[in-house]
Amino acid sequence: MKRFVPVLCLLLASTTIFAQSPPVPAPPIIGASSYLMIDAKSGHELASLKPDTPVPPASLTKLMTTYVVFHAIAEGQITLEDEVTVSEKAWRMQGSRMFIEVGNRIRVKDLLLGVIVQSGNDASVALAEYVAGSESVFAEMMNQYAQKLGMTSTHFVNATGWPNDEHYSTARDLAILARALIEEFPDHYQWHAIKEFKWGDITQPNRNRLLWRDDSVDGLKTGHTEAAGYCLVASAERDGMRVISVVLGTGSDKARIDGSQALINYGFRFFETRLLYTAGEEITRTRVWKSANEYSPLGVMEDLYITVPRGAYDSLESVNSMPAVIEAPVAAGQPLGELKVSLNDEILVQEQLRALDENPSGSFWQRTVDTVMLWLE
């Protein structure tokens, strides 16, 4: 793994500061009203078209439905083995269905598979009612989670994506949600790769036909209404790199599949993602005055990834900056500096450098000596 040497001045960086990265062609043209593709680990944007335009999300809504249910499971509020009694409202839902019957008791796990694989509106409502008591209260929970995730241009009014003027999202927000699902619930995320699910006597295939076309694709969700067009949030992993594509408003199932495949291939062909630093690894150290330890090691609290054009990694520059004077005490995790990583003068990563260990105040003698030395600085 590459280790960066902090650049102390522009003269020291002169051997790489004018390096040029390999050219990257424009993204493929696909018949979508908007789209966005990001790297799942770094969050770096690889290609986009009107990613912040609010649109009807159709059944892509169910990504948030399952996200809320997964949280309820993780927090011990419900379990996968809980049995849910199907209400008449859930049973009467139109559109894509799991075909559950009113009054039946169905496991949470089966309902989740009915949502994820079969895109069941009936299963979505049944889960919403079980978790929150009613679909309207569940929609409030969906909006609360959206706010926490930073989905600033999203508003939900139901658990299914059933058309409503107040129900909307964007390609960017849906990419944020997909990334959260993958990172927070990797075990449950695997269910998005299931190609078919049988309930009763009815077997339904996953509508994400990329699962059959590309072995690296393992999720996530299709959506379609007349207003939304044909949509697809897809994710694929090749050689340790994962991308997420959100394609909205295409004219056919084939168009959303072909468009998503083109974006995914483009992302893997022209970009690469590397681990810069692991969580807790010492990146640099800084002088701490009046402290028990003369220096404090600095690093990042979470693994730090970067996405760059293929072949450009060796042209990256790293600059660490710290205040002129830092005095004890220093708490573990306290921000003490900043790391900037750039390529061709464009900043790609800007991250706080934090103290990896506690550094308390030194002895009276040490504090006195350092006070005098600071006067002389």
Record keyword descriptors for this entry.
single chain, 377 residues, alpha+beta, five-stranded antiparallel sheet, 27% strand, disordered N terminus
Outline:
With 377 residues, the protein is an alpha+beta fold.
So what's the overall shape? globular
Largest sheet: 5 strands, antiparallel
How many alpha or pi helices? 10
Average pLDDT value?
Answer: 92
- What is the helix fraction of residues, given as a range? 25-40%
| Structure summary, number of beta strands | 16
Widest sheet: strand ordering: 2-1-9-8-7
- The class by helix and strand makeup works out as alpha+beta
Roughly how many Å apart are the termini? 38 Å
Structure description:
This protein has 377 residues and is an alpha+beta fold. It has helices at residues 62-74, 88-91, 108-116, 121-132, 135-149, 171-184, 186-189, 210-213, 253-270, 364-376; strands spanning 34-39, 45-49, 83-85, 105-107, 196-199, 202-205, 217-225, 229-238, 241-250, 271-277, 284-287, 295-299, 304-309, 317-321, 335-343, 346-355. The protein has a 5-stranded antiparallel beta sheet with strand order 2-1-9-8-7, with helices on both faces. A 5-stranded antiparallel beta sheet has the order 11-12-16-15-14, with no helix packed on it. Strands 3-4 form a two-stranded antiparallel sheet. It is globular and about 80 Å long. The model is unreliable at 1-19 (pLDDT under 50).
